[in-house]
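RETRY 2/3 - previous attempt timed out on the joint model. Re-submitting the same 912-residue input unchanged.
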Amino acid sequence: MAVTGRFVLLVALGVVPVVVLGGSGAEAAWFALLGWLALTVGLGVLDLSLAASPRRVSLIRDLPAKVRLGEPVVSALTVVNTGERMLRATVRDGWEPSAGVAGANRSRLVVAPGERRSLRLQLTPWRRGDRRTEQVTIRSAGPLGLWCRQATLASPGRLRVLPPFHSRVHLPSRLTRLRELDGRTPMLVRGQGTEFDSIREYVRGDDVRSIDWRATARHVDPAARGGTKLMVRTWRPERDRRIVIVADTSRTAAARVADEPRLDTAWESTLLLSALATHAGDRVDFFAWDRRARARVTGVTGSQLLARLVDAMAGVEAELIEADWTGLPAQIRAVTSRRALVVLLTAADSPGSARGLLSVLPQLTARHTVLVASVQDPEADAAAARRDTLDDAYLAAASERARLDVDRVAAAIRQSGAHPVSAAPRDLPPALADRYLELKSAGLL
Amino acid sequence: MTPGSPSDVAEVAAPAAGSAPTTASTPRTEAATAVSPTIGALLRRGRTWLVLAGVLVVGVLVLFVIQGGVRAQAGLLDPESPGSRGSGALVEVLRSHGVEVAPTRSLDAALDAVAAADGAATLLLFDEFATLDADGLDALAASGARLVVVEPGFRALEALTPGVRMAGAADGVLDDADCDVRPAIRAEALSDGQRLLTIDDDARSAGWHGCFSQDDGFAAAFGPSPGSGGGDADPSAASAPLSLVAATTVFENSRIDEDGNAAFAIGLLGATPDLVWYLPGPADAEATAAPTLGELTPGWVSPVLVLGLVVTVVAGLWRGRRLGPLVVERLPVTVPAGETRQGRARLYARSAQRTHALDQMRVAAIRRLAVALRLPRTSEVAAVARAAAAATGRDATSVMRLLVDELPANDARFVALAAALDDLERDVAAASRPDTGVRPAHPGPTAAGPTTTTTATPSDDQPGRQR
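RETRY 2/3 succeeded.
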């Protein structure tokens, strides 16, 4: 039960009869007051008894299953009046605050018996993951609009908010670089990780070392009498390499660097690298790992991959536990027995927290090419350069110390045969993509 | 993903976006299940508490009936009160000795009771809040009853005995009656907690005398009624028309058994067969009060005030009723990454670890200098210092002192050295790329790597440039 503002106004209007009748004496004024209160309560009870039941309602949700973070989406809720009275309702849909409901989330509906009305809420979620609503609250007012009946009805809904993939702006340029590497612009360099592509005629600029003399001997030049055409061999990077991306979801991933949690940077990097690798014809497997696999996408290729990835990532949040890297090699072995590019998205910033990672790196590098990508704090660089006051100088010293630690860990990673990549949060996804292209062009995959 | 995205991205990522609105739930027509309980369900759920509350209410009512209704608040010298400050004990004793005690709370009733007792009555007056005015006091004095005034106020003294004044509290037990009033002689002593009255010469000559003296004051004073003219007062004080007892202690339940209190009180009050116990009540005050605020304001003001209260409560109900339960946001954990850095800086600052802090900056600077000067990573500090001095044209000793030797003696020197390190790095960076002429924002660990300086001018013949 609830009362409306109109009822409050009605009660307040009682001042008129009280004052008018109170001119003749205090007794009359008291009677006027009592009479007015009785009248308003009577009207309220009458109104309440005429209000439609908020329980005799059925609800139908129409909700897109997914939306990308930051994009608006319309959630439709249809209210069907199954009772016999006119339903004058104020409806609130119980979305989480982070679902970003536009407006006050109070919708007024008038639904005749047996009819249905649809209310549309615009949602702009501002957090990744599953945004939920569990219930819908309906407040049904009587015909006079004085007293209301109220009920909360179960109507679960879920909107999966996908990671935003801001770094897709870097994709076109990297794809161009990839095409240059790929068979469309054949390479004349032969090396490990490249495979034979074709034989074609020599043009000026080609490396003379790649001239295939046997093929040249077989190709008679019709234009020059007795002459032959110079043929060169072309190579292209090998395709169908395996890439295993492991995102660390342990407590270090909860750290917010430059106003972006490490985990979100990891998702961006994963998406960009996966998009690029799919175009390059490589196969991508993905884990979110701390002490066990929190999410896993394996054996998916082509256009399905990114859809599966964002879906798997949506629900994963950083856990406040220490990562256990010792289980990781077995997981990777289960995915592929071939040599693969293993990309570890983690925080390699202090020798203490990176010890677990460093202890398993030799196992991984013995079989695979390993990239260790970690976010570098741009504020540390800025703080290290600011040395004006005493506090600044101490902060600069601490920042230098942090950077020395990062260098030390990077050196240790390099020593165990892996490749460290570190950059500011916004720059890490393209840096990782560039590193991948470098490795691919060098045939190191 | 909106359809207007770049085509090559859309080609990759469109399936991920799922922009096509697929319905998450199938349409249903059955009524939605209610989460909030109906009023009936609420009553059923709270049955235990309702029953308990009912039992409690019934129990209280039964107790109320057994106790015989609400009693008037037990006040000071209340004749019915068994409490520590009442006078139930004294009244019971007097009654058991055949004295008719008539408690009253208004002047008219007191006068009626005195009249009904045919003049042979004692009237105890205790006016705690000084409600009686001079007319009332005169009427009592003229009623013909023996008056016993307990703790007389200023107004009562002024009206009845202009020569007697209150004079503060007595100290300790008063064990000398020092007068020929019979109850006082019998009592022999009064307990601690008495107050004192002084009697001036005029009053003394009018027949006033006191008992239980201390210094110049008396715990009780006896004299003629103001109307009787005085002078010929009967010295056998039991029949003295006016008695003043300075403190209530003598009559209180908690103190009546101390020393001679009981004997004094019974002797004073039990002299006549009728005792009127008069504590002036609100009715006595009302007759004389000025018109109240309620009488001066129009009749509708109070109802409107009540209406305002009701409107406030209803408005509170209107705004306070929540539209459905609170929704809980499940927040993920996030930690600012710079916290450890700042914490370490504060640790340095608190323990004033200037040397240690400076060492961190020196080690980092030496590493970067080695990179900028294209020296091998394993170069000694002295070699780096020499190369830096050569590159910037500084004195090698001063560079060495900056990089290694000098210990910061105070905070100012520490800040100066930190800044000087930064300057040296800038100078070296500028010297190793004179062609650009633009100083980099800050040489990062890799920013000044050998690969970035391939366009150096031939004039700069640093060793290792050709690497």
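The longest strand of chain B covers residues 217-223. Closing ticket.
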